[in-house]
Amino acid sequence: MDKNTILKICPSFQVRFIGSEKYLYRAKDRLAWEPDIIKNEMFWEVWEFFLKPRSVLEALESINHENDYVINAIKGLIDCGILEVNNIKDGYGYNKFILSKKLINNMESVFFHISTSRMNWVNYSKSKEIQELDHNEMDIKVREEQPPSNFKKYRNSIPKYDLAELIPLKFFKSKINNSIFSKEIEGLNNKISLDLINLLLNYSIAKVGTVEMYATGKHILKPVPSGGARHTTEAYIIVNDGVDGIDFGAYHFNVNNHRLDKINISSFDVNKLIIASNVLVRGKGKKPKVIILHSCIFERSMFRYREARSYRVMHFDLGHIHANEIIVGSILGLDCTESYSVPENLIESILSLNPLKESVMSSFIIY
């Protein structure tokens, strides 16, 4: 082995943890396993050392074991694909020309992104690619694991308000013209009420139909598009005092039953959610009346799209929902705003969300 060879950990590999258990995950072919090698102390020393590209000679000088032992460990990791020769085109040869300083200091993330983005892209205009890269892959997936549910029922909640599938716009004062896209919205003095919340949910995140998808069966349709009909976004409605027709409290929008389920948390925690969701300067001094917190259930999207494109699809979905909320709010002349600046750790703690499975993304606030 040439001791001047520059090696690095293959960016498609990650060490992942479930509780105290650890395993290897390889993104490029979506395999996860628990090899004996990760129980070896030498594995961790070599893994940590080659997270950044370094030479074999540097490893021999830095890793405190006999040279033959280190060489054999390196060869073993090369043989199983965990270590690879640093390809200059993968980043380190030209990153100083195209990458910012911040990215250069986070090359592990850059490499992982590059690797996962090399996954096969399906050209849906070609029936052969649809069959080979989509249908055949999904046939394998559904044999390996159960597709995630389209619906969530919040555990610590009780059914509270059945919602109407149709709320006519004529029930409210409204104005539809080019001014709805202006930052200066004309107030129409609509009463903030359960019916108004119902209308917003109907136009943003409610179920409006179903569609049959290959291999994974029936999926839901909503007023907003979603990659592969995954619809990853959930809605939690926080209601302050003085909203007509609905009690102060925190609610989960049960899409399957078109219902608001009241979450069993204290008034103190509800107030903490209201304060935490209203952190932007434009909301300073205003009293939020209704807050819609949006979360994302990652596996709905990742089951189909896996690592490379999952995060893009999730943000597209959420952006469409926000757009619909803002348009409806503008038509009704509401004093409202949207925010991606939410203290997700605090909110997830209060709502008992596991952030590895479902994380808070944003809020829509009505004053």
From TrEMBL:
MF-aspect GO terms: oxidoreductase activity
InterPro entries the record matches: Bacteriocin_Proc_Enz, Nitroreductase-like, SagB-type_dehydrogenase
Transmembrane segments: none
Annotated protein name in UniProt: SagB/ThcOx family dehydrogenase
